[in-house]
Amino acid sequence: SVINFRNELREIAKEKQTIIFIDELDRCRPDFAVKIIERIKHFFNVENVVFVLLLNREQLQNAVKGIYGEKT
User: Fold this and answer.
1) pLDDT of residue 14
2) Which of 4, 12, 19, 30 could form a disulfide with 63 if both were Cys (CB 3.0 to 4.6 A apart)?
3) pLDDT averaged over consecutive 10-residue blocks of the chain (72 residues)?
4) How many CB atoms lie within 10 A of CB 47?
5) Helix/strand/coil for 17
6) Phi and psi at residue 20, in whole multiples of 5°?
7) Could you please report the per-residue DSSP string of 39-68?
8) Residue 31, beta-bridge partner list
9) Whole-structure pTM over 0.70, yes or no?
10) Measuring CA to CA, which residue among 68, 67, 37, 72 is closest to residue 52?
């Protein structure tokens, strides 16, 4: 189903660039925010599909450090 989804999304994005906005990601639980970013990277990796993440960068950096360690 992931392959079918990507193929359909590729068809949509072929005609015009598709932009998806995600707001307030920094207000989610840290583990949820990191999972969302990972899924965006892997699941929506399609040409002409762009994500705009609106967030407090410092808070999100702290969330990533909490999941992957201080040196991340």
Assistant:
1) 92
2) 30
3) 90 92 88 89 89 90 86 76
4) 10
5) coil
6) -120, 125
7) HHHHHS--TTEEEEEES-HHHHHHHHHHHH
8) none
9) yes
10) 37
Helix (H, G, I), strand (E, B) or coil at 18: strand
**Under a CB-based contact definition with an 8 Å cutoff, are residues 10 and 47 in contact?**
yes
Query: What pLDDT is stored for residue 44 in this prediction?
Result: 86
N- to C-terminal Cα separation, the chain = 32
What tokens appear for 39 in the block?
Answer: 């899924």
**CB contact at 8 A, 56 and 30:** no
What single-letter DSSP state applies at residue 24?
-
pLDDT score for 4: 92
- pLDDT for 11 equals 93
pLDDT of residue 53: 92
